[in-house]
Amino acid sequence: MRFPGVHTSDQSVAGYCKEFEDGTGGIFGDFSSGLKGTWQANQPLNEAERRVFKQKVEAAREQARKEIKACHAQAAKKATILWKQAMPAGADHPYLVKKKVKPTATLREINPADAKALLGFPPKRGDQVLIGRLLVVPVKVSGQIASLEFIDENGLKTALAGGARAGGYWATGPLPKGDGADETLLLGEGVATALSASEATGYPALAALSCGNLRAVAAQLRSQYPKARLIILGEPGNGQSHAEEAAQSADGLALWEGGDINDLHVDQGLDAARELIEKAGLCKAETTSRRTPIPLPELPPVEPFDLRLLPDALRAWVMDIVERMGCPPDFVAVGVMTALASVIGRKLGIRPQAQTDWTVICNLWGFIVGRPGVLKSPALEAALAALNRLVAQAMEDFTRVMEEYKKLQALAKLRAEAAEKAVKKILRDDPHADVSALLAVEEPDVPTLRRLKTNDTTPASLGELLRQNPNGLLVYRDEMVSLLRGLDREDQAEGRGFFLTAWNGDSPYTFDRIGRGLNLHIEAACISMLGGTQPGRLAEYIRHAVKGGAADDGLIQRFGLLVWPDPAGSWKEVDRPPNIMAKNEAFAVFANLDRLDLEAIGAEQDKDLEGNPEGVPYLRFAPDALALFREWRNELEARLRKGDLHPALESHFAKYRKLIPALALIIHLADGGTGPVSRVATLQALGWGDYLESHARRAYGAIAQPEVTAAKAILARINKGDLPQSFSSRDVWRQGWSMLSDRHEVASALDMLVDYGYLHLERKETGGRPATIYHFIAGAEE
């Protein structure tokens, strides 16, 4: 497949994309910009397959080069023929008259009918056919006509389809001979600019015919004329920044401001245009003396993770994983604590007060945040190893029970068949005989697989899993924001409500769905959640969540174990066997909690009027631990009522009422504690609270400092090429990009980038409200 290149017209075929016939991948690229890349099927390749894939890539690229070369050759042939058939351009050509410029010997014209006859198609731009007398502009590459540009009477332009454009130019007249000593050469974007500049100064002028081509043509001119004075004439918008880049790369001069040369010629005359061009010598010094940009404010700092916050029995295992993997300890710690919470589930709760029946179920929602490549997924997989062993054991148990069930089912079938024969015999002798006892063949109960974890399921299916597994389970998603966005949709309102309810761990839920009936009732929905995402995706989601709408219901605030650590320090190669003793000790903790002996740990349980157990068994805080918790909660409640927190942070911290007691219970049980939850476990939980608060403030910093976040997003768009080097505020917010859709926030961010030295602001008079153009300062990357 062929398509226009980055720096070419819509008639170009510089871009290419080809998929391999066997579906293993393909190539893409753009000859005009040098962009090239590959893709391959989402499956690992061995060494031999990689060699074969590389050979396919090389062969496909060579074929693409041959195709574009043939296409260019054919276009050059057509261009030469048409150029010879065209007539010298007349001074009365409407476009030249409008631009107040004179034709040169390097311009010709042709009527559309003749152009169509020679080309086989009418020159057009998109769906719009060029009309009237067509100016014919020869585009030269290496001194030979390679393509043509057509300009109609109204100024509509297009290029010859398939023609080479990269590095191509049009010149107002013959170029000088020699090395350029004592010569001045002018290089602009378009034909009118070049004509006005040449008429104003008497210097030879060239047109690169697109701003993206300025740098390539400037490089050619500098190579051919090393001693010439080279002035690059930028145009407002994209052209100004490209002109600066071309001037800097070719040791030339660029106009920093002043607008379009032809516009200046038309409005104020050739003298004004000449005066501006001669000022170009001042611009080079200005561009090199601009101040170094000031770094933008960073995100709020976070506390590093202290391994002493973990249960003693798990600390060595987590440390071993972190050392061997080289990942932040935060990722593994959050994964381990969330997995422990899911194993405990509804087996046991904690009552944070001394006498009330307020009960906290210790299911947790964990969320890790980091850039690609910081080992988020491997860290979580390692943290879930102990839980996955329990999952495997449950599958083995289910397989064994299923085999026994099949035997019992076969036996029940034989008994039913025997009973049927006996009943038939009895009824032949006595049609009124009571045979109900013979037909009452007991069927074996169908086994249910005990589930501890799920990865991808619908809310209704998850509800069915919870009905079969009342202790609750873990929902693990490698990319959590994708799940949250799915729940934002209007048609997922019921599912979203289900997840909100399941965070509590002890609330009933009923799915009333057509086709399912009214029988999908869960006595107490209990879900632990674990996953990760990238900083940009989380920041975008949080900002949308707190602005109202479907996402503004506290779902994101339920992720109490939300961590966004700084990147790990310098890399250190660690190649040693795992600490098996630490691993076995950690796995034993999970196994013990999976078969938790409630009587042995001293759990209490309410009773109903008839003296039967009722509700979830529980522990309370020990007296000294309760004093700590009360002191912490008094401070929390006072902070929540002061009104100086952002509402989103206030909602997040309010959910620590559940988080801290849950963490204390988990740590207490993991370290083999019995009876009331200890003071040590409570201190560790409070340490978690301080640590997690700093990470929450970082995560919600996207809304506390919107202009910083938006400013960084603008720089990222510029560096990716999504934004040109010169642009308006409207060019940013109208795209609807993440974190850049609010025009007021975009305006504040642009002002910040100007103040910090990343952008140069130009106010352009338009006869009405002045237009504001922002120019990116080369080398000012964040």
TrEMBL record:
Signal peptide: none annotated. Keywords: Coiled coil. Residues 45-74 form a coiled coil. InterPro entries: DUF3987, TOPRIM_DnaG/twinkle, TOPRIM_dom. This is Toprim domain-containing protein. Residues 185-269 form the Toprim domain. Pfam families: DUF3987, Toprim_3. It comes from the Bacteria. It comes from Desulfurivibrio alkaliphilus (strain DSM 19089 / UNIQEM U267 / AHT2).
